Amino acid sequence: MRIVDRLKRARPVSLGLTALDVGLRRALYADRGRRPVVSPAARDVVRALRRDGVVFLPGYWSRDRCERARAAVDRLMAAHPERVWQDPVDADHRLYGLERVDPDARAFLDDPLLAEVAAVYLRARLEPRMVSAGRLDAAPGNIGSGAQSWHRDGVTQPLKGILYLSDVGPEDGPMEYVKGTVRLRDQLRHIARSGAVFRQLNWDDAGVARLERTAPGSVVTCTAAAGTLVLANTFGVHRGRPATRGPRYALTSYYFAPRTLPMVAAYYDRQLVQVDGGTLGEALRGTERAPH
Questions:
Q1: Domain ranges in the chain?
Q2: Which residues of 40-67 are buried (b: 16+ CB within 10 A; e: fewer)?
Q3: Are the C-beta atoms of residues 98 and 131 closer than 8 Å to each other?
Q4: Is the distance from CB of 169 to CB of 247 less than 8 angstroms?
Q5: Which of 13, 94, 105, 144 could be joined to 85 by an S-S link, Cβ 3.0–4.6 Å?
Q6: pTM of the entire predicted model
Q7: What is the torsion angle, in degrees rounded to the nearest 10, for the CA atoms of residue 40, residue 44, residue 47 and residue 48?
Q8: Distance of CA 93 to CAs 42, 267, 268, Å?
């Protein structure tokens, strides 16, 4: 075991590093401008996000709109297969930059309520930057959406909106989320009681069971009807449950703090293109060419 790993497994070290890390992240996201006036609707969503890390908004889109979006996703994936990201077992298929070619995706990204929530959630300015479309099929060897089991996303991606375009039951690969794994006091509690360590990004089922024993009832399976929006801080521990039935369709909007954009752009430049052929790095930096 590397010396860094041994140090992280020392509980006092992990506790101290985590407290320092959260402070540095707050400085990274910091926006010293005026705080926006918050509407009652946004305030309720923000409170739930700060408490649990995840919140449901049922009926966000109509079924007709979801059906139209599903047709658009299928059409674009068929037209541009070379621009579709897929996992190694051909279960998860994604297109990025959908807002550049689809008006419904553009409206989703530009929703004033979500922009307001993003602007105040972390007491810092987060900006909507892109929408991905996902189709998840049942396939042998599927371990979950994104070819990942239980995990945290990187600290540069603190907020996502996941809009179900189809009904999502337990067999359809729903998002699963461990509430109370974002705030500093919750992270420290899980280090002290659940065996978590500093900057732990991946968990197996046994590790998540330990998290839930520390906070009973904290694991939420996000089953919901088409048109439901799930807003989540994906630094919280989560996964897409492996699908045994499909397809499951969803749009995902991504929000970033402006100071993190160079890091995010460098990450996406290495692996993904957008549905119109541009790179995500160009779009995130604001240097993209005109869509075609």
A1: 39-184+218-285
A2: eebeebbeebbebbbbebeebbeeebbe
A3: yes
A4: no
A5: 94
A6: 0.87
A7: -170
A8: 32, 19, 16
